[in-house]
Amino acid sequence: MNEVVVLTPERILEATEEVLRRYGLAKATVVDVARALDVSHGSVYRHFPSKASLRQAVAKRWLDRANAPLQKIAESTGPAPARLDKWLRTMIDIKYKKVCEDPEMFATYLTLAQEACEAVKAHKERLVDQVAHIISDGVKQGAFQAADVKTTARAVFDATTRYHHPAHCDDWKDPAKAARVDALLGLLLRGLEAPRKR
Amino acid sequence: MNEVVVLTPERILEATEEVLRRYGLAKATVVDVARALDVSHGSVYRHFPSKASLRQAVAKRWLDRANAPLQKIAESTGPAPARLDKWLRTMIDIKYKKVCEDPEMFATYLTLAQEACEAVKAHKERLVDQVAHIISDGVKQGAFQAADVKTTARAVFDATTRYHHPAHCDDWKDPAKAARVDALLGLLLRGLEAPRKR
DNA sequence: GTGCTGACAGATTTCAATATCTGTCATTCA
DNA sequence: TGAATGACAGATATTGAAATCTGTCAGCAC
Question: A187, A188, A189, A196: which to substitute to probe chain B, counting the most B Cβ within 10 Å?
């Protein structure tokens, strides 16, 4: 029963992540990936048309993994204000933990993400939709006021940029971060709960 | 009356900006600056101890210039909500115009600012103090609610990061920007005006 | 004396030769 | 027949020698 191990896109992505972790973004080559899988580099090109597309696929995988827990919170039930608070704090935490536990890999993913900016745009769109979903629930529950849910969701997402956008990750070790996040989320939630004028 | 033109720090900074504009950040050398002033490069080192300090001084000048109009608004009188709105929109506009009218020079200043991160920190502190000043007026006027003015000011500053931090300048040409800024500022002002719970 | 110069040492950058990698494809192997 | 190979051309990265720059300082000029 000598199972022949077939070369799948999934296995290639796995190996690519390993190579990126080991060699770093700048030094990782398609030849390295092929070597890790014990195949010729031509075989890799049978599954991915270019090195760029391989990198994109790695970035996409990473974004999908980051998305899953947030999706879950967005789709849960209960009072919207607490849910939005939790969703935002979870997003902030996910990013923070990622950068803490493996800063080099975080930098790698960051660069990959910049290259795959279309995938990032789609990812952000999904996140804003999740916020919109929560806010929409909040409006139904009478807890939130919002003229345009999607626009409001985007405003909330924009307002927290400093704590989830990787460009600001150097600031995340600020010891006053927790207090600043509290102040920011408090301000936003009060803004959502407030009656709109005119 | 053959006035002898003396070499001042101010003249050196002027020449340095000119050299940066002409050659770009990477290629600009102290020798170039000296040549532009028609002196030996040793003379430049009489006024600035190092190339790094010269760059820092250029960055500082730039930050100070950007600060002036905002300071004016912060110190003016009248209803705080409108003043805060104007202050934030002015800050956003200043950055936007800078990046539009000369993107290369903006990139240059951005790198200089990263090097002179202490000066940037001080600059941001000044800006937050201006926001705090406006919010403090708002509280006195009964228009705003704020437990801790400085913390609230920081939250407002943080919340607008996406529209004033240079890391996001690529997003500033988004045609929906104006609408998104409106939504964000509206949300923040409602949050400031809302009564605090508990 | 004060301010500038220009020659210098060590650090940094440039440049061109060399090595490695990306992406293709005719050929092999099961 | 369809996946994998490995040799290849053109693109990209590495390397080390040469050129340039940074920062210092003894000496010159006013």
Answer: A187
